Fold ParA family protein.
Amino acid sequence: MTTRILALCNQKGGVGKSTTTFHLARAAITAGQRVLVVDLDPQGNLTSVAAAEPVPEDQVGLADVLSSRAEETARDVIVSGVWEGLDVLPTTGEALGFVRDELVVAGAGREGRLREALTEVATDYDLILIDCAPSLDQLTINGLTAADAAVVVTQSKLWSANGLAHLLTTIDNVRRYYNPGLTVAGIIVNQHEEHTVAGRHWRQELQEAATARSLTVLTPPVPKRAAIADATEAARGLDEWGTSEATTLAGLYADYLTTLEGAR
């Protein structure tokens, strides 16, 4: 079985990309897979919860792998994750933000640096999840260029729905110029509030926009639940959280993973 590489993306912050990456990783671990999560967000939130030990700000990380001014490879900087079978390609401090600026003025091949870096380690894993930055800059383009498929993480809200078209245009451009095999594995509607009129309206808008592009919206949507954020902040899987609600939510992410890995 070949390694599956998924890039979780949205140019809008606060939609839950890092949280979704974390719980999809847990779903894969409980299914017996070997998993690498790549923290491509300069904020480093995923690293802070997924790494087994705190990663010092001056420790080498993804920024060094992507920079032409450093010699580290992905294998040099990967750290162990909070669960057996999970590894993390970490981001800490401000270094990745500086590398993002470096990529803006870099020459040919800048879009493929992450893809080249992951080539060295891909066969060590069954699944690689890339947590992209909340932007449509060179970091996200690197993530999409390295991926087999994009996973759009969004919300059933006005600004999230309006931003979907811009994100899909970026994905189309990456497919055209850098990664012809890139697909959209699915759209995850996160933090959904079904009991509100606005939540139901914008979920329908997202569904119609996705249908028009022949894209899959994963169902049911992820409900807005404190257990999801609480488990993430505690660096624990929902199946480890100890409540029936959390166990049900863990099953939701497991179903999502099955769908995303099957989308080719």
User: Anything to note?
Assistant: The two ends are 13 Å apart (CA to CA). The chain is about 45% helix and 15% strand. The first helix runs from residue 17 to 30.
